[in-house]
Amino acid sequence: MIAKSGPLKGLNPTVAIWSKFIVFALVVFAAVWTETAGGVFQAIQDAILLALKWYYLAVVAGFLFFTIYLLFSRFGNIRLGDDHDRPEFSYFSWFSMLFGAGMGIGLVFWSIAEPIYHFQANPFIGEGTNIDPMSPDAAQTAMRLTFYHWGLHPWAIYVIVALTLSYFAYRRKLPLTIRSALYPLIGERIYGPIGHAADILAVFGTVFGVATSLGLGVQQIATGMYELTGMQFFVTQTDSGQAPSILAMMVLIAVISAIATLSVMSGVGKGVKILSELNLWLSIGILVFLFAFGPTRYILNSYIQNVGDYVGHVIPLSLWSNAHQDEGWQDGWTAFYWGWWIAWAPFVGMFIARISRGRTIREFILGVLLVPTVLAFIWLTIFGNTAIYLQLFENAGIVTAVNEDVTLALYSTLDALDLGFLTTIAATVVTLLIATYFITSSDSGTLVVNTLLSMGNPEPPMVHRVIWGLSEGAVAAVLLAAGGLSALQTASITAALPFSVIMIFMVIGLMRALREEVPGPGYAGRGRTVKGALKE
């Protein structure tokens, strides 16, 4: 199944050719027929969310409950690898890489914007409720919903994919690809069309997920560079104010893609690891800065209250469908988020699996589910509640800035602190942090794509790392210039529906394999035998 010679040497020709064809065709469609593509993909997404919102809510809640079950189950001591294997990376490096790939850049972008949006309007505030917009009660509701969208649920999605892939690749010696998770259900047919389709779908989600995030993220970097330097090169004047310059964003994409490609060429143990650790140190630095110079007492009080509020509402929220006043808010926020996390699951799950060999199932779940969630809650409280405090008690105008241009959310909050030269230093660090998070997203995405194309090779051919690394940047640049970026983002979300079905099969297959390895009372060992005996 792996080409031994020619331009596709080291890759699975079927998956490689079809992946390139689909990526090229969709880029052309979105770039040339931008309005039509946007309409088609948006109509598909709207139809999915309208008819199947209940499904997204139910399946993600199910993934979380299943993950918690595994954490406390008899399978917790099973090691992801041979019994003598030990982790390749330290806890700090491991947390740095999985957090950076999982949602680091999203948190930077939305940690202020989302709470401010919910502070103004959500289903629990406004007309017909006892909570007024932009009130203290509205602030608490805003943080509850933000915690909900960035807490346990997205990481449970990643756990399902990453744990399943790790188990079958390292414990059962199958290729580190999406298809291997289906082995308990379809056996050797994973090496046929069904397996090819699963891997191609994962490549699709990874390429366009990274490309759209790269394209959207450089808008914030361009805004940050303008705020720091005042250079008109980074912005364009429009009728409604200003917007990031296309030329500036093209330059930023080229630079970020080049650095990311160099990083992925050096491998996980070098470039990816070093940049991920840099991300975490920069993140800690900006968190300490805001904590020290922001409303410290308010942040501490808010964190305790936010966590308690989340714990008290997480189960009701998990099963909340807003059935009695379904005005579309949940479609545009919660259901959209669940689809986006599922669309990113092949990429993030594959990458986490790549760096998690040697850990036990219980250690893995604690590390992937709980640690990033706690870090996210700290981040959201320090950023989000600082912005809310400035708006609520000092009328700092952050709401106005967010409504005019979402990329200004972070910088308007730093400006409102009014710390003189320290504000400039913080803005510089934040802009660098955004860039490094995009680099790590891009290099880890490139590594995942090439691992899929090479049937699980942890060190895929160098030439293809370069090709796909530069291709992701090219896709983002072309779509950004043509205005088709949002269309491909919508298409990526649409791909979440079939992949969610694959994830359900992953859960079934994983449970079957775990029960065969560690039978419980009365288990007869029925069903398909998973390939490969455990190695001593």
From TrEMBL:
Its main location: membrane. Keywords: Cell membrane, Membrane, Transmembrane, Transmembrane helix, Transport. InterPro entries: BCCT_transptr. It is a multi-pass membrane protein. It comes from the Bacteria. It is found in: Cell membrane. The chain crosses the membrane at residues 12-34, 54-72, 92-113, 152-170, 200-226, 246-268, 280-300, 335-352, 364-383, 419-439, 466-485, 491-511. Belongs to the BCCT transporter (TC 2.A.15) family. NCBIfam families: bcct (TIGR00842). This is BCCT family transporter. It comes from Fodinicurvata halophila.
